[in-house]
Design a protein that fits this description.
Blueprint: H1 3-11, E1 15-18, H2 25-35, E2 40-44, H3 47-59, E3 67-71, H4 72-82, H5 84-87, H6 99-111, H7 114-123, E4 126-129, H8 137-147, E5 152-156, H9 172-176, E6 181-185, H10 199-213, E7 218-219, E8 227-231, E9 250-253, H11 261-268, E10 274-275, H12 282-293, H13 296-310, E11 311-312, H14 314-317, H15 319-326, H16 340-352, H17 355-366, E12 372-373, H18 376-391, H19 397-411, E13 418-421, H20 423-426, E14 431-437, H21 444-451, E15 454-462, E16 466-467
Parallel strand pairs: 1-5, 1-6, 2-3, 2-4, 4-5, 8-15, 9-13, 9-14, 10-13, 14-15
Antiparallel strand pairs: 7-16, 11-12
Helix pairs in contact: 1-2, 2-3, 4-6, 6-8, 12-13, 12-19, 13-16, 16-17, 17-18, 18-19
Length: 470
Amino acid sequence: MNDEQLQEYSNTSDSLIIAPAGCGKTETIVKASNIVEGKQLLLTHTNAGVKSLRDRAKKYNLGYKDVSISTIASLCLMISRSYPKICGYDISEYPQGDEWNTLCLAGCNFLGSKIGKKVIRVSFDGCFVDEYQDCDIFQHRFIRKLAEIIPCRIAGDPLQSIFDFQGNIVEWESDVLSEFSLSGKLDYPWRWEKENANLELGKWIVEARSYLENGEQINLRDTPDSISWFENSRRNRNVGYSIGDGGESVIYLCSSKKVGMAKRRAKDFGGRFNYMERMSFVGLREVCQRLDQTEGYEFAEVIFDLVKNCVSNVTTEYRTIIKRIENQKTDIVKGLRKHKEVADLFQKVIENRSVSHVITAIEIIRDNTECNIHRKELLYLFLEILSEAKNTSEKSLIDIFKGKQQQISKIGREIYYRSISNPLKIKGLEFDHVILELNEDFTKEQFYVSISRPKKSLTILSDSPEISFA
């Protein structure tokens, strides 16, 4: 984008730039907010996106007087808590699921009021929205209401639109291009020009994008050295063991439609890769709810079920203890030849629901060299919840879980340097190396998001080296 296009984008309300992954979209937004007059509101969708905007704002010496940076959801939450009567929505707990849609509509009520318009005009002189292709129709409605009050400019990439929001996704052609005018398109792979990145890989990704846009076939036999293709097989999937030096980040991506595939792959690798959990941690929420309502043998069973889901070989290694708990044996320690310490701890858990004994038992299982943790994120979060419960008897496990969930939502999650996930969970993240297990479930958008995540190398496992999408 040249200076003239940047000026047009910055100073025109309802303007749009299309920016492929790694081509400087966030940088352009911050540069644009630096050349327009007055304080700008910068909006995005994730905490990682907020951090990226803040990092670049610091680069241009933009402080609180110049920009305010937030997710759309957080802004709506703040508005609803500050003006519940105007919004028509009084929220007491952190929103879950469809409550976020209601929150956006509440924000629209505020923007439609006289007080809302005045507050926005006094607070901001303009707005920029990043990653607009990730908006759902409720967020889109909120931004259009905002655009009636202050100038709004957006940036996005339709080829990175991979969230369906149960059919409520914004339509690029009918919703976006009909209401925003195109100021320009970015096409240089700046991300891969940095140190410790591969510019040749970046240029190939830009080229591959053009093939996808035009519905053309991509031939993986004719690629730079940083891109490798293998026929998808159990044996070839073992390439995951050899990619990446110590400390380099590696992500293994597979289908988001085949439920449980990523978990199975993480288990197959025997702890070499960590399974990336959903941000909602819905399974752990259910565990905490059950534990709050149970005791005795059922309490111990729920604990062991969670540990089995996080640590491989637990069912085999602790088979006798698990069966005795399931059969509700009076003495689960008697006659055991091994793991007596774990059995004794669970005996105490059954008798007095002792959280401290649960923690010790899990730590012993975790350190057992015959077992491998493949869901570290889930197991360690559970241990954190138990530790807080041990020191805070007034709080239930589910209340502690909710507090931890809000904390993670605000500050972000820890990404293990070797992880297994799917395209939906890693959008916006970067890794040194990507291994993509491609199958018929992938859309061209999911494929593009996946291949645009690596900085150094891309490995693709598929049935054929010729890739095309209908």
